[in-house]
Amino acid sequence: MKNNITVLAALACFGLSALGDAASESEYYRIITLPIPEEIVLEAGGMQFMPDGQLAVSTRFGDIYLIDKPLADPPNDIQFQPFASGLHEVLGLAYREGWLYATQRGEVTRMKDLDGDNRADLFETVSDDWGINGDYHEYAFGSKFDEDGNLWVTLCLTGSFTSENPYRGWALRITPEGEIIPTCSGIRSPGGMGMNADGDMFYTDNQGPWNGTCGLKFLEPGGFMGNPSGNKWYAITDALGERPEDPESGSRIHIEAAKIPELVPTAIMLPYGKMGNSTSGIACDLTRGAFGPFEKQLFLADQTLSTVMRVHLEKTTNGRYQGALFPFREGFDSGNLSLEFAPDGSLMVGGTDRGWGARGGKPFALQRLAWTGKVPFEIHEMRIQPDGFELTFTHPVEPETVSNLKSYQIETYTYIYQSSYGSPEVDRTFPTIQKVEVAADGLSARMKIDGMQPGSVHELHMPGIRSEEGQPLLHDVAYYTLNEIPKE
């Protein structure tokens, strides 16, 4: 996260806004606001549905509440029950075999209600094998359990700039026995964690030193995420092998990745001010259609812009990731931090302005995003091809508008990979869309493009596209982070 963010950032690209229209979006996905009792400050850092249908919510102040009937619509009968208190900024909740696990700054703790009164009676430390000195920015974000029964923890740098305690700037796996497995280095300031449909773990990192912009990053075991500030802790573990070479400040991340085998290129770069200013929570749609047509795609939150975004990922031939970022829903009450899919397929969204400010305007909120059953006209997927992109659509298109080259505007840019804070958009180019061919069923189109740029965001605007029914795209912009062009 950042403490010098600007809430209203410029959205200029071809004179078009990247953000959506909340009124139009509400036709397809409506926001349901859960009332929070006046005496509760619910800055939701983590959420977990319990077996009995209650929702556990953790707060920045170290409390955990159980919410009864969280899916009520309208949400009139919701009840808040204190479950635990006295913890330290809980930024991850997970449930397993009768225990609720909480990731707090100094440890992973598990707790259990022994007498059935909806309050935790038994607390056990699962793991506390990492350093903490009380610096305000030494956040620890926790995941859900992976297929091996491990929890993952990402540890923010000290003050978000240096690493003054062991493993600050690292990702650790916590085994069921409580042992730590140092897994990745190079982290700066995480905002959330989550797995994709294949079980690979990702986290969001925020703009700052060695992060030209915010990014969604693949936590590839053994990988270096890009910020070398915490790499001195290679000296206390052999889990990842030798310390990787330090990157050259002022270069570009794809250039340095070609020189440093451990360096994992950012899967999704979020254009700063347009899409991601303080990117946070991650949730994968495994609802089997209960949330609409985007099954197995990732949803990302942003704290500053109070939005939820959508991501379609692809795996490159060398086993890493790249893909497309799309606007999805704006209009939330506070700065979105945590995301959690509910049993009914809706998406819980926890928010806080945390004193930094957020576009939503309120200090905190708990809301639910529910699909209305109506499918919006959207780009469903944007897939890389050797000579361009393939677009798929949620509804059949009107072929003439899609094949008309005047329906599109495209540019590319990247960010300086440097030790100083952030980066402007640099190395801007304007590829040429040479041809667009529409499939016979109208549900996909192949774009042939001259001038693709590995290592860059490809920002594609599509204001001219129409569906068979004459509707424009609900969101007519996509941002594809291109790390590798396939040969065939």
What does it look like?
The protein is mostly beta strands. The protein folds into 2 domains: 22-367, TolB, C-terminal domain (Neuraminidase, 6 Propeller), CATH 2.120.10.30; 379-482, Immunoglobulin-like. It contains 3 helices and 32 strands. It has helices at 22-25, 253-259, 399-403, and strands at residues 29-33, 44-49, 55-59, 64-68, 79-84, 93-96, 99-104, 107-112, 122-127, 140-142, 151-155, 171-174, 180-184, 190-195, 201-205, 214-218, 268-270, 279-284, 298-302, 307-315, 321-329, 336-341, 347-352, 364-371, 379-385, 388-393, 409-415, 425-429, 432-438, 444-450, 456-461, 477-482. Strand 12 (171-174) and strand 13 form a beta hairpin. It starts with 21 loop residues before the first helix and ends in a 6-residue tail after the last strand.
Oligomer designation: single chain
Ranges where pLDDT stays below 50 over 5 or more residues in a row are 1-18
Describe the sheet with the most strands.
Answer: 8 strands, antiparallel
Structural class: mainly beta
- What would you report as the Rg, rounded to the nearest angstrom? 22 Å
Distance between the termini: 39 Å
CATH architecture of the largest domain: 6 Propeller
Helix content: under 10%
The level-1 CATH class of the largest domain: Mainly Beta
Physical arrangement of strands within the biggest beta sheet: 18-19-20-21-32-31-27-28
CATH topology of the largest domain: Neuraminidase
Number of helices: 3
The fraction of residues in strands falls at 35-45%
Shape: globular
Give the count of structural domains: 2
Mean pLDDT: 94
The CATH superfamily of the largest domain bears the name: TolB, C-terminal domain
Number of strands: 32
